[in-house]
Design a protein that fits this description.
Blueprint (H helix, E strand, L loop, with lengths): L2 H25 L2 H42 L1
Helix pairs in contact: 1-2
Length: 72
Amino acid sequence: MSVDANIEALKNSITEFETEYTKYKERNVNSAGSRARKALMGAKKTINALRKDILTEQKDKKAAKKAAKSKE
């Protein structure tokens, strides 16, 4: 999954969490609380994937910069 797709998935997870948490708090719907926790777990997984993608990009840029510098 690309970084942009992960960012969009994160936004969707947060929106879903807000919706379900509101139902849980305002209407006392216990199943909405479970869905809110599920949405947070999805956000956590997406955040971890984003962290890995960003780290990979940083390493690639650093390696490319080092390779360009060594060619000079």
